[in-house]
Specification:
The structure is a single chain. The chain has 346 residues and is an all-beta fold. It folds into three domains: 1-88; 120-230, Hexapeptide repeat proteins (UDP N-Acetylglucosamine Acyltransferase, domain 1); 246-341, no CATH class. 3% of the residues lie in helices and 36% in strands. It contains one helix and 41 strands. Strands 1-2-3-5-8-11-14-17-20-23-26-29-32 form a 13-stranded mixed beta sheet. It has a ten-stranded parallel beta sheet with strand order 4-7-10-13-16-19-22-25-28-31, with no helix packed on it. The longest helix is centred in the last third of the chain and has 9 residues, at 236-244. It starts with a strand and ends in a 5-residue tail after the last strand.
Length: 346
Amino acid sequence: MKYKLTSNAKIVNNTTLYQIVALKDFADVKAGYLGGYIESENNLSQEGNCWVYDNASVSGYARVSDGSQVHGNARIYGNAQVSDTALVNGNAWVSDDAQIHGNAWVHGNAQVSDDVQIYDNAWVYGNARVSDGAQVYGDAWVYDNARVYGKARVYDNAWVHGNAQVSDDAQIRGNSQVSATAQVYGNTQVRGNAQVSAAAQVHGNAQVFGDAKIAQSQHIKYNRVISDITDIKHNLAENIEAQTGLVVFNTELYCYTYVREDLSSLHDSELKYTVGEYISVDNVELDQTVSCASGLHVSNAQYWNSQGGGVRLLCKVNLNDIIAVQEGKIRCKRLFVIGVCDGVVF
């Protein structure tokens, strides 16, 4: 035996935990060294160099084994497993059926729960939360206030940080980063050197890779992005297709808008649309990062499905008249009205 339980005890969540004392020298632990707290010997292996330090605790059916270490005020409970040379410290919590193994680190105020696996050289720290059946591995980092859940995977050298959220079956890999308040979900992949930041969303079956950059309030749902589309002056056609699924022909975009039944604007009853004529607006907001502002708004047909009490118009927009592509829609200063759509448009 390398340790035994002492009579020093504390109660955590109605469970009595006992401080441990080392019975022999191993690793950096010396005989007589007082460690952390466990509920029973089932929580800490008598083999290997594993140890529970400081005020850390292990309880329930949780187990610490091999050369792993638990420090600080960390808590391991439920059926959680910490093994190999993994490290859990600070105020971190590992619970339920979570597994921390390899050379993984979980520290700070991080919480790992449910059926999560953190392994290889991955780090989860800060106030990060990883839950459900998510996995973080390779040399990946999840930190700050980031959330990774569902069946999401973060691996290779990828980083998820800030207040970003990654969920569902999304994969973040390569040297990619998801940060700020960005959300990545669905069956998406973000890989290569791609960056998704600000309030951007990547979802559906979209793929973002290469040197792609997604930011502002861009909502990427269709196709793939391989370029920096944060500037409206560059890669505009790629930006439009990624957010709306609409394809540019030469310099023209065929799209839809939604108006009242008398063909007046939803936001300005004095602004009338006429079939077969151009319509334009003055004093348009020129900030390309703003979605909802003065201008004419168009997108794909499905974008307007939730609207009621009006009609869709099929329109044509020249690329030179586009101001912003954000939140899955396009804001422009001029368009041509082709016709009125009867009934539901696919």
